[in-house]
């Protein structure tokens, strides 16, 4: 039987090639999405620090974020928020004896029985860090200090703070008055969502007019946050600063909360237990790092995996509108080196509400980097009549809201990594070696077969015949 050497060699090479391609393809699919780069921030002097993006709550930088420290006067952020939420700005606050004599440190020298509006008090609290004003505000809002402190701790618990206990309204030293930079970032984020708070904390100067106890002079206030206003020096001014709150005691060292915005991305930076002017230096370094290494992307402008269902358009249905759409404010935060499609996404229903049918949640490098709500548009199908008197869609027929955000096309994205390149090259090298060996075996097939047969001599039948003759001779 004649063996077709070329045919055998071709089949062997094809089989080995198919195996190699399968291995390489598996490597691409399994290794392609494993590495997602997340920038690492600079070293800072502060014992604890955090930078959080306000719209998503994403943490862009962290150092000892759950360690407990004394907050000092950044406490007044929560005091101001509670006052804004539980009073009107024109209410009259009267300074009690306790507010004047039970406080020390920074203040604006108010007198017992002095009257100021809530607005004036809060500007003094946030700009000049006035301890007696914070005390008077707390008494006015809650009736007494302990009740206001209870309000503070209840609000912290509602925000998800786990390492916080406040024991006064102004941040004066107290062993039972502590928090962490993470909890403080949660408080600062909540406060900044209030428009009145934003206006107050971002004001550079403010003048308190004459009062019943200061009839001859106004009180001029300057914002102590030196990244916003040159209170003592211009050295720390920061172009993107929106405001914040300073703090300092011997026990707490320097603490600082800073809001900043650039390229549509708004951040809050919290540093605690910083030496000297290290709180300003650390804050600048951290904000610069985050603005340089991260970007904010609008979901509705970039999302392609999920799309509105195309409605049939014919006849009078051409003017129909989609029943759901993506929230125009939804956004994600990604490293500047990443593209929107690099983020993984899934539809979740944890945020469902009256007009919110669900959300698309995005993750990148094991972090939730943003989301966008799927909202009902309220669109309705217009009435249509096929012929006179026969109404198909009437006022009594309501169109049910349906989810139309469906995957339009599954996209598989992989990233080229050094490990992936090595795997592919190794696979190709093995493939070349196997092809070379198979080709050599095929070319020398008959030679190898001949040598193999020469080592195995065929038994001759003559020896057996000879034995039979002897056997026959004996039996005779």
Fold and architecture overview:
This protein has 476 residues and is of the alpha+beta class. It folds into two domains: 48-296, DD-peptidase/beta-lactamase superfamily (Beta-lactamase, 3-Layer(aba) Sandwich); 303-407, no CATH class. It has helices spanning 5-31, 76-85, 97-101, 118-127, 131-142, 145-159, 181-192, 195-201, 278-293, 299-302, 418-443, 445-454, 462-475; strands spanning 48-53, 59-63, 92-94, 115-117, 205-208, 219-222, 241-249, 253-262, 265-274, 294-298, 306-307, 324-326, 331-335, 344-348, 356-364, 367-376, 385-387, 390-391, 406-407. The strands form six sheets. Strands 10, 12, 13, 14, 15 and 16 form a six-stranded antiparallel β-sheet that branches. Strand 8 (253-262) and strand 9 form a beta hairpin. Helix 1 packs antiparallel against helix 11 (418-443), helix 4 (118-127) packs across helix 5 and helix 5 (131-142) crosses helix 6 (145-159). The two termini are 47 Å apart. Mean pLDDT is 82; it is low at 12-34, 308-319 and 389-413.
């Amino acid at each position: 039987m004649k063996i077709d050497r070329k045919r055998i060699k071709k089949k062997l090479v094809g089989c080995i090639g198919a195996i190699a391609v399968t291995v390489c393809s598996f490597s691409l699919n399994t290794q392609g999405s494993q590495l997602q780069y997340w920038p690492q921030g600079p070293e800072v002097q502060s014992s604890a620090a955090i930078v959080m993006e306000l719209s998503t709550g994403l943490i862009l930088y962290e150092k000892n974020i759950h360690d407990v420290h004394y907050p000092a006067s950044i406490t007044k952020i929560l005091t101001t928020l509670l006052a804004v939420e539980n009073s009107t700005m024109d209410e009259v606050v009267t300074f009690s004896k306790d507010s004047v004599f039970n406080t020390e440190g920074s203040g604006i020298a108010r007198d017992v029985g002095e009257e100021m509006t809530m607005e004036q008090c809060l500007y003094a609290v946030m700009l000049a860090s006035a301890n007696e004003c914070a005390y008077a505000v707390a008494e006015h809002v809650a009736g007494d200090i302990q009740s206001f402190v209870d309000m503070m701790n209840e609000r912290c618990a509602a925000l998800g703070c786990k390492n916080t206990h406040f024991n006064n309204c102004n941040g004066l030293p107290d062993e039972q008055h502590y928090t962490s930079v993470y909890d403080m970032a949660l408080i600062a984020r909540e406060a900044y969502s209030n428009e009145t708070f934003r206006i107050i904390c971002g004001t550079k100067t403010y003048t308190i007019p004459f009062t019943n106890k200061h009839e001859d002079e106004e009180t001029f206030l300057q914002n102590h946050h030196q990244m916003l206003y040159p209170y003592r020096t211009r050295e720390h001014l920061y172009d993107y600063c929106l405001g914040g709150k300073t703090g300092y005691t011997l026990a707490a060292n320097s603490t600082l909360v800073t809001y900043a915005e650039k390229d549509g991305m708004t951040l809050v930076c919290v540093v605690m237990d910083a030496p000297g002017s290290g709180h300003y230096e650390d804050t600048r370094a951290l904000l610069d790092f985050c603005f340089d290494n991260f970007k904010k992307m609008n979901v509705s402008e970039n999302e392609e995996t999920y799309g509105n269902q195309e409605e049939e358009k014919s006849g009078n249905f051409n003017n129909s509108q989609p029943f759901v759409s993506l929230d125009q404010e939804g956004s994600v935060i990604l490293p500047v080196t990443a593209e929107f499609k690099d983020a993984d996404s899934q539809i979740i229903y944890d945020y469902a509400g009256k007009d919110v049918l669900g959300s698309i949640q995005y993750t990148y490098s094991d972090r939730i980097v943003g989301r966008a709500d799927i909202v009902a548009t309220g669109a309705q199908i217009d009435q249509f009549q096929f012929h006179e008197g026969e109404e198909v869609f009437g006022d009594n027929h309501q169109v049910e809201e349906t989810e139309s955000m469906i995957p339009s096309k599954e996209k598989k994205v992989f990233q080229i990594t050094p490990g992936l390149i090595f795997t592919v090259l190794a696979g190709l090298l093995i493939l070349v070696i196997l092809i070379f060996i198979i080709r050599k075996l095929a070319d020398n097939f008959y030679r190898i077969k001949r040598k193999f047969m020469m080592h195995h001599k065929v038994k001759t039948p003559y020896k057996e015949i000879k034995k039979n003759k002897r056997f026959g001779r004996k039996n005779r």
